[in-house]
Amino acid sequence: SLGGLAKIIARSEANLAAVKKAVVDFDWLHFLAKNEQTISNTSICLTVDAEPEQVKAMVKLLDEEGVAYDIGAYRDAPPGIRIWGGATVESSDVEILMQWLNWAYQTITQG
């Protein structure tokens, strides 16, 4: 119903593009993968220039605001953000999430 394999791949790639734009726009946000060839367009993992407690506070704040759930990095990974960018997500929602992420970062780190 989404248009076949090519369309769902394109949707995932558009979701990743929205995150890439945020990584360029926000100097405090980075991809966990240092090699661009290994960045996933579905399970997008990011690091944040903040203390681990601050990253957890950002995740909690976004949860409390009803913006994003379960986006904290996995327990064995460095503190960060994990975003699902698969074909079940609209790119416009990822773009909005990036703005919320910036708000949460500013709120937590600027006090």
Summarize the structure.
49% of the residues lie in helices and 13% in strands. The chain has 111 residues and is an alpha+beta fold.
Describe this structure in words.
The chain has 111 residues and is α+β, with helices and mostly antiparallel strands. It has 3 helices and 3 strands, in the order αββαβα. Helix 1 packs parallel to helix 3 (91-110) and helix 2 (52-64) crosses helix 3. The longest helix has 21 residues, at 5-25. The chain is globular and about 45 Å long. The model has no long low-confidence stretch (mean pLDDT 95).
Spell out the blueprint of helices and strands:
Blueprint: H1 5-25, E1 29-31, E2 43-48, H2 52-64, E3 80-84, H3 91-110
Antiparallel strand pairs: 1-2, 2-3
Helix pairs in contact: 1-3, 2-3
Distance between the termini: 45 Å
Q: Write down how many β-strands occur, each being a DSSP E stretch of 2 or more residues.
A: 3
Number of helices: 3
Structural class: alpha+beta
| Major sheet details | 3 strands, antiparallel
Low-confidence stretches: none
How much β-strand is present in the residues?
A: 5-15%
Question: In which range does the helix fraction lie?
Answer: 40-55%
**How would you write the strand order of the largest sheet?**
1-2-3
From the alpha carbons, calculate the radius of gyration and give it in angstroms: 14 Å
List the keywords.
3 helices, 111 residues, three-stranded antiparallel beta sheet, alpha+beta, 3 strands, 13% strand
